[in-house]
Amino acid sequence: MKKTSTFSFLYRFTPKLIFTLLILSSSWPANAATVGGFAQYNLAFIVGMVIPVLIILVLLNSVADIRLRYPFVISLTLIAQLYLLQFIEKEYVSFLFISASAFISAMLFSTIGEKLENKLKALFTLLFSGLFIAFLLSVLFIQVISIEQLWLGFILLNLVVAFIGLLILSKKLQIGLLKETITLVLVLLYGIALYLWELVSISENWIVFSAIAIYLMFVVNYCSAVVKHRLFNGNNELELSQEIPQQANESIAVFDPVTNLPNYHQSLHCLRYYNGHDPSALAIIVFKPINFSQVNKVLGHHNSDILLLQLAYTLQKAVVDNPLLVNFNNATHPIRIARLQGLDFVMALDSNASQHPVKILIEQLCQQLKAAVPNAMSFKSFSLNFDLRFGVAFVNHHQNDLEQTIAFAGDALLDGEQNLQLIRYFNQEAEKYTEQKLLMMEKLKQDIIDNNISWVLQPQIALNKSQLIGFELMSDWRSTNGNMLDVNEFIEVAEYSGEAYRLARQMIEQACKLISLLHREHFYIQVSVNLFSKDVLEHDLIEFIEQVSSQYHTSLRYLVIELDETLLFEAPDKAKLIIDQLKSIGVKVLINNFSGSYEALRYLRRLAIDQVKVNCSQLVGLKDSEQSEKIIISALINLVRKMKVPLYGSGINNSEIKNTYLDIGGDIGQGNLITEGIRLEDAKKWTAQWLVDHVP
């Protein structure tokens, strides 16, 4: 099939090729016009070469997407330069520089700007065009600046713009751009030669030599790109259209227009009616080329669609004879792969059709497809490598719901992609866990919106003196089953609910109300709030704090905002901005789960942090061989004490932890040993009773 396609292509275009060769041979005697100078000889050479090249490109334009404006503009401006160098008097030198500027602008844009995409391409079009127009107007109407100075500025600015474009291309394509770099060097030499020719009258041969070198470089690159484009489209599109047919009497909606594979609806229809309405033995396999999405950004949608067509053809050809796979077309032209949305494809394997274990069959199939992908798929001047990832779900695990099974296979694919696994099977237990989490998220979201969150306080005590230092405000939220979540699970549910910021605002408001209440009773102690997520570090949080403190007449020096140490890594810029803003309005800042990391120590060194808190819950049941936790916390206490920053210990849940914490130098602590939590409305009563019991 491949040989037939190639020969048919050559057969159709042989007459045109012979015709162009005849023109080439008839025009070549123009090169013999060597009477005269070096410029005149090269003028004859260029004219003899330009005419056949342009005719060939015009003939190929009907079968290939060729932009003829660049060869025409560059060729004509080069001919004009060589003619002006030989025949025009020097007082008309401005026309030489104008043609040279058009030559350079077209050359640089075709080499650099044309390969950019979308807004960048439009920007570089504007830059190159603007520089040319500015030079043209300056030459014609500005007499103050000499033409060689204008030319030097024009060349340097164009090279700067082209170099920036080259850097952008190199970063996007992640490949070397040797030909483009050589072109820039040649343009620089050409610009210098023309400048020195006008300034000190060096030989015109240097101009001619550099201009011819640039032009030959352009011709070679352009013709090479045209040949690659034609060979790719001529062979692959013709072959693919023959190998993956669309029947004339079928609805076009059945097939995907890009890959010519059956679409999602056609695959679902075939699966529902597979094997006498009993698809329960099927394994659904969803897969995708994981690094294909970058192609759209580099080559554009049209070119990436061509590559996707080639990839689909290659994969379909690899599995078309596999009888274990469901046929999504007909018996005459079987198609074993269908396209879902985006870059996802689907296959269905019938495990009843073989006596081998189904997972072995699946792994063999996936390895076969992975091996079928070419090591390097070439397109134009690019070489692209693709890899596949697979997600698998079984129909009989999901009550024979085909749509849900395909969706679960897609979920498994996403998990496999994140965990760098070639094949990922959907986990039924994970499904149940996910459903429970979704219910919890929905309930928490609604409770936050309805302002239906209960609050508790955890006292912070100087354990050596039984002195009340403050409270930490915490939520007392119950999940759908009535159980209270641990801190980490609650944070995860709150973040995924999308209402973490609203919850943080409610906590801050409750803290300000509590501070105001305690002050009216002459209890001047701090209240801390834990901002657990980077999602709450919004720019208007500081304004909200000031507004609420004004509303409840709260002194902000008694409000402590706790930031988890992980936020310093996940959102360092946001965290720094929030910390600086909090300090500016008098709010104290505490680093929670302090571990002595470099980022946290940076804030401590510049005195941006008022307090730190360490988790002491692991200081229990330590054997002599398991003292690492104790050593770490002891080192942190000594470090913080030397920096004269108050340290708080959380998780003081029993006497053993308390005694260990005190033995290694800790003092202020909080946890269930003191109390499991005080309801917000009982704060005043509890505080008064504590002071009666512990203050002499």
What can you tell me about this protein's structure?
The chain has 696 residues and is of the alpha/beta class. It folds into three domains: 235 residues; 173 residues, Reverse transcriptase/Diguanylate cyclase domain (Alpha-Beta Plaits), CATH 3.30.70.270; 245 residues, TIM Barrel, CATH 3.20.20. It is flat. The strands form three sheets. Strands 8-9-10-11-12-13-14-15 form an eight-stranded mixed beta barrel, surrounded by four helices. Strands 2-3-1-6-7 form a five-stranded mixed beta sheet, with helices on both faces. The chain has 22 helices and 16 strands. Strand 6, helix 12 and strand 7 form a beta-alpha-beta unit. One of its GO terms (molecular function) is cyclic-guanylate-specific phosphodiesterase activity. This is Putative signal transduction protein with EAL and GGDEF domain. Pfam families: EAL, GGDEF.
